[in-house]
Amino acid sequence: MESVIKTAFPFIVFSIAILLAFQGVLMIVAYTVLAERKVLGWIQGRIGPNRVGPWGVLQPFADLLKFIFKEDLVPDKSTKFVYFLAPIVALTCALLPIVVYPFGPVITTIDWSFLPYGLGDNIRQLPMTIAQIDVGVLFVLGITSVGVYGIALAGWSSNNKYSLMGGLRSSAQMISYELAMGASVIGVVMLAGTLDLNGIINAQINSPFKWFIIPQFIGFIVFLISAFAETNRVPFDLPEAETELVAGFHTEYSALKFALFFMAEYVNMFTVSVMVTVLFLGGWYVPGLGHLLEPGSVPYALVSHVAFIGKICAFLFLYIWIRGTLPRFRFDQLMNFGWKFLLPLALANVILTIIIVFFLNR
Prior knowledge:
Blueprint: H1 2-43, H2 59-69, H3 80-95, H4 136-146, H5 148-157, H6 161-192, H7 197-206, H8 217-230, H9 242-245, H10 255-280, H11 289-292, H12 298-325, H13 331-360
Helix pairs in contact: 1-10, 1-12, 2-10, 3-4, 3-5, 3-10, 5-6, 6-7, 6-8, 6-13, 8-10, 8-13, 10-12
């Protein structure tokens, strides 16, 4: 019995960690939707949702019930298998990067000897990351890039000209802005000397700037603009432009399948906010906190985690603010901006970073 418990223990801990991380992210996503409706209401001189629960806090759960009980319509001439697969691909690719996010520092001050069967003997650290891999940046960029297949497949399989046009626009947009986004990350990777997300945070802690947004401000701007385009948000929401394409790639989707696309968009917003925070704002690190609390302690980890979530929420608010204030680009303007301005700016930042790193390491 003891050997069985020792064998199963790591899998149980890993499963609990995954459950907590995914549940936390989904709750943030749900209330991001509510926050967006509230903030847009205030920007436009309205109140926003305020009927379901006090101040409308239960509105996300009411929306979920609405999606569950709505009639699910499937176009007769659609390619059924791909039509059903597309929203699953979109949401899966949006959720997968969660496993490599560093949500806080490692906790080293907990005594695990209270665990039975000697399970705590080999536990010296409690990382706030589900899986730490050496190429975390590439993993996140690669997985999120595959997510465009969900949109493209949805547009093609729906057998609708508006949906197809939305899918094609999304593919072209991803190709155009993925290059600039990747180039904007190169400067951070060169300064940190690693592709590991935890390593990038540690490099910022040891850097004289503390946050890479200072030496990589150009890369930060390029990454942020590219991220808006990658997530199909205003002013780059051409794949689902209501005034031109009805609803774009998800015109023919309803009920839970539409909800999956809806969730995927907001999870991608969360992913972008995490990446901006980790790459340019030190992740969970708060300058000067180590002088007030003991690094590795539970209070230090909790404050760092709250700071990390606060930075993410600030970028989510920026998403909402931009949506409420900026108009949509024309598609030719979007493509010209990506290829003729943003990509050259990102490459210039890479060259400038190479020169700086070369002279600093001489």
